[in-house]
Amino acid sequence: MVLSTMLPALSACSSDDATTQPSSGSSDAPITVEINQSRDQYGKQAIQIQFTNTTDNPLTVTGARLRSPLFDGDILWQRSGNGLELPPRQPKSVPAALPAASCGAPQTGSNQATLQFIAPGKEATEEVTDAADPFGVLARNSAELCIAAQAAAVATMALDPELKVAADGRTAVVRLIITPAPQSREIQSFTIESIDETTLLAQSPTDPWPTDVTVGSTKQELALTIRPARCDPHAVAEDKVGTLLPLRVKVGGSEGLVKVAASTDLRGRIHDFVTAACAHD
Q1: Helical H segments across the chain, by residue range
Q2: Can you tell me the distance from the alpha carbon of 75 to that of 96, in angstroms, rounded to the nearest whole number?
Q3: How is residue 107 annotated by DSSP?
């Protein structure tokens, strides 16, 4: 497994030159760590790890390992080649994939990071005991992954790749296909309480999206009439999450969002539809 092979590299430093510097992410640490997430990463089970060099000299990060009680495995980043150079006082962010969420485990404890970096004249390892997560990115992603796993144990949900556009071109219908999972499962059903609009798609006032749909042992198709949520010039060009459909679900005693992504083909068809529909206005 690729991730497991990275771990030795993150902890291995020269016994002669390596130094370990514990910190809590405060400004006296050589490198501070902050967790964030861009729109492009939302829904892709990935986050950003931001490094800030607090010293007056350039530093080069060559690897990072982030541990959180919210996830079963480590969140890893390792740069190939010479590493990521950090100029003094300048933050830089790198993407990192999320492992499986730790569902049902105690959700307490701090986010700890181990950084391997090169300082002038030496290699060093820094232990950050409380990596900052000011927007609750890890908690949100963990909760969404857990409720999505619970829902997937009952049924799989996917958007049909075809799009049926109305004759006037102002609305279209996309179908949500719900397929029951095998019967041997602990939770027998869940409820789609509502479907959220996106930055790109809105429901039709005359044909609103369904609410309080019970999902269980019967295959279903939900026909969702869509219209453009916005028609400014950048609506399609800058779209990141507009074709990621958020379902508000209740599974057992848990409530949360399950995001259903459009396929590449459907995403293209939706973009073409929005462009054409906006041209009518």
Answers
A1: 2-11, 137-154, 264-279
A2: 7
A3: -
Query: N- to C-terminal Cα distance for the chain?
Result: 52
Per-residue pLDDT, 53: 94
- pLDDT, residue 2, reads 33
Token pair in block for residue 281: 């206005």
Residues 234/228, Cβ–Cβ less than 8 Å: no
Q: Is the CA virtual torsion 73, 77, 80, 81 positive or negative?
A: negative
In the numeric block, which tokens belong to residue 137? 């990115």
Q: Where are the domains of the chain?
A: 2-135, 144-279
Which CATH architecture best describes the domain 144-279?
Sandwich (2.60)
pTM: 0.77
Question: Which amino acid makes up residue 264?
Answer: T
**Same fold for the pair 2-135 and 144-279:** yes
Q: How far is CA 11 from CA 110, 160, 187, in A?
A: 20, 46, 42
Task: State the pLDDT at residue 13.
Answer: 33
DSSP-based three-state secondary structure for 250: strand
pLDDT digits (tens, 9 = 90+) for 153-184: 999 999 999 999 999 999 999 999 999 998 76
Provide the pLDDT for residue 80: 74
Fold of 2-135: Immunoglobulin-like (2.60.40)
Q: Are 59 and 32 in contact (CB under 8 A)?
A: no
Contact between residue 224 and residue 201 where contact means Cβ atoms under 8 Å apart: no
The DSSP call for residue 166 is: -
pLDDT score of 203: 96
Residues of the chain with pLDDT under 50: 1-21
DSSP 8-state class, residue 212: S
